[in-house]
Amino acid sequence: MEEIKIRKKDLINIIQNVESFINPKIQLEQYAIDAICAVDIIFFAGFEFDDIEDKMILDLGSGTGKLSIASAFLKAHTILSIDIDIDALNILKRNISSLNLENIIFPLGCNLENLELRKNILPKDLKLTTIMNPPFGVQKEHADKMFLKKAFSISHVIYSIHVASKKVQKFVSNYANQHDWKVDYILPYNMVLDKIFPFHTKLKKKINVDVYRIIKRK
After folding, report:
1. For the residues 90-116, what does the mean pLDDT come to?
2. Which is the most buried residue in 3, 139, 191, 204, by most CB within 10 A?
3. Residue ranges per domain, the chain?
């Protein structure tokens, strides 16, 4: 893998300055990932495991595109940014345009249940990496289950962010096993959430999350 030209602090600065949610929807749990977290995760996937450069990235529940944009600057081959919310995708499109990334990031408005991707029409040597920040299930229990199930059906490797807890670890591990996948690595992380809903009492809040690397069983 060639040396990545952009420095981490410069990429964080870029992500910090992109447009975020204007009117986030609580039912979709649209908590924007912070710039440092987005960049750390993409650098982790890119440098520790070589899962970004020259790979097709599937950003499920992409929101306004922070994970997608970070992947683009780490030389992903192509990025498909998928979200059900047209308002979020419109913001993503503006972010893509402002950074001249139209030739690598492609937004798609779609309910994941209806998403189909035929890997047989893609180049045989093109690997698919799914990176996602699914709903944590606060509004709807196991809302992340649909994201995982879809990722299992279309990916070569998966990175997924979930609330840190032994219960969630057991669920993700068991659910992966049921689909002939396995948890390969768990990265503990502190995500910073900005105040975006009226019921939030603090300007910023740290939450403990786990970033899962999930791979197919051989």
Report:
1. 92
2. 191
3. 8-216
